[in-house]
Each structure stands twice: as C-alpha cells, then as structure tokens.
Write a structure and sequence with these properties.
The chain has 244 residues and is α/β, with parallel strands linked by helices. It has helices spanning 14-25, 37-47, 59-72, 97-125, 147-167, 188-191, 194-201, 216-222; strands at residues 5-9, 29-34, 50-53, 78-81, 130-134, 173-179, 234-237. The protein is globular.
Length: 244
C-alpha cells in the first residue's frame, strides 16, 4: 500500500477532521482517532480513512488503538496531536477543580500519552517519523477566563521542544501549530453571537476568524520531507493576533 500511516487524534470533527481529510487527499493512509467512535466512523467514511476509538487521557486506550492501527495499516509514521477540550471557563478563583483536571487530562496528559507511545514504536520500527502538535496562541497571549486551557497549551509547547530534542537522534521531527480563534463546532456557539465574534475579530489585524482550512497546509507541510530541517518550532496561524 502507498502513502504513510497518519494518525490524527480528535479527528471526528473540527480542526482534526480537516487535517485528516487533507492528508487523505494527499494519498496518505489516515486514521481518524477519537473517543466519539460513531462520529469518527462517519468522518472516516467520507474520505476513506480508518476510524479507531482512542481516549488520549488513558494510556491503555492509546496502546489498544495503536495495536489496531498497526494490525490494519502498519506502524504510525505521522502523528498529529489534535485532541483538546476547553470544558468550561471562568476566572481562576472560581474555576471548578474538575474542569481544570479535565482539560489537563486531555490537552496536556493526552499529548504526552500519545507522543510517548507512538514515538517509542517509531524508534523500535526504525521510522524517522513526524509529530505535529496543535497548540494555541493562548499559550503566549492570555485571555481572561481561559487560563486553564492556555496553561495546558503552554505545556504542549514545552513538550514539543523537549520531544524534538530527545527524538532528534532517531530522526523524528516534532513541531507545533498554534492557531488563534478558529471557527469549529466547538466554538460555533460563541462565534455565532455577533457581539462575541466582533470582540474576537477586533484583536486580529486581518479582522477575520480562521477556519480549519487555514491551518491544514501548515500541518501537512510540517509532516512533509520539505520540512526536513525544522524541529522544535511552534508556528502561529493567527491572522497577526500576536502582533497586538
């Protein structure tokens, strides 16, 4: 079979689905990995991918999913750590501990769990693979009420740098993509409120909210041979928001 095996977590919808579809369009063998199996199967069916259930917060679920992928397609050669949640919001002094713990378990622990398991298998198989982590400009520019989410993305950026350093001798490149606000099913409830959308857009020099299609070319590039001398970088796709 031609094409690399590309695993995208949280790929049943939103950014993850767009990324998975972009890789499939390039002829890669794509795995739509998500805890929501029904939605993952529907997404995978639309572009000829394999759907697997994967709970990134659970190491046993990660290993079971990777066993399935290896049996069906072969070892993972490209990993996109996209799975993430916000789970709620509010000032830190009022934020429930369970919301903080949930976001840490998926966004930060989940990225660690999947990277650890996939990278270990890449090394054992002698694969000079690629890892792309979906971060956020919130790791560098705070927004009141989202401190819990932004803290996890800062952690993802740190993991990206450390993994890049440690995995370089094995030829595994690790990079990140940091979007600003993106219109997805997760954010639609807020973005569809005109006042809220205007507030977000007022912070962006290009004056528009991104779509998943604005991110996919960079993710695909970072996983390509053309990016063969880039590792440890996290690149923003934010319409210039970090300039303000």
């Amino acid at each position: 079979m031609s094409g690399r095996v590309v695993l995208v977590t949280g790929a049943a919808s939103g950014i993850g689905r767009a990324v998975a579809e972009a890789f499939a369009a390039d002829g890669e063998r794509v795995v739509v990995a998500d805890v929501a199996m029904e939605e993952a199967e529907k997404a995978a069916a639309t572009f000829g991918a394999l759907a697997v259930r994967l709970d990134v917060s659970d190491p046993a679920s990660v290993e079971a999913a990777l066993d399935t992928v290896t049996d069906r397609l072969g070892p993972v050669e490209v990993l996109v750590n996209n799975a993430g949640v916000v789970a709620g919001g509010g000032p830190l002094i009022d934020l429930p501990h369970e919301i903080f713990d949930r976001v840490v378990s998926v966004n930060l622990r989940g990225t660690f769990n999947v990277t650890k398991a996939v990278a270990k298998r890449m090394i054992e198989a002698g694969i000079a693979g690629r890892v792309v982590n979906i971060s956020s400009i919130g790791a560098r520019q705070p927004t009141a009420g989202l401190g819990h989410y932004e803290a996890t993305k800062a952690g993802v950026d740190a993991l990206t740098r450390t993994a890049a350093l440690e995995l370089a001798p094995s030829g595994i490149l690790v990079n990140g993509v940091a979007p600003g606000p993106v219109y997805t099913p997760m954010t639609a409830g807020l973005m569809d409120i005109p006042e809220a959308r205007q507030a977000w857009e007022s912070r962006i020099p290009l004056r528009k909210i991104a779509t998943p299609a604005d991110l996919t070319p960079l993710v695909v590039f970072l996983a390509s041979p053309a990016a063969g001398h880039i590792t440890g970088a996290t690149i923003q796709v934010d319409g210039g928001q970090l300039l303000t």
